[in-house]
Design a protein that fits this description.
It comes from Actinacidiphila cocklensis. GO terms for molecular function: DNA-binding transcription factor activity; sequence-specific DNA binding. This protein is 73% helix and 0% strand. With 48 residues, the chain is mainly alpha-helical. The chain has one domain. The protein is globular.
């Protein structure tokens, strides 16, 4: 959950999702997107 919170904080600053995923420790941007959809029930873009 902390990794996701860190990723969302970075994404809210306008950092590209691929960079956010890499910096937050995800394998790639689709991995981040799948986790957001799994936990929040909505796509990453809609969450921001």
């Amino acid at each position: 959950m902390l990794r996701l919170q860190r990723a969302l904080a970075m994404a809210r600053t306008g950092t590209p999702f691929a960079r956010v995923a890499a910096d937050a420790g995800y394998a790639d941007q689709p991995h981040l997107s799948r986790e957001v959809r799994s936990l929040a029930g909505i796509p990453l873009r809609e969450l921001l």
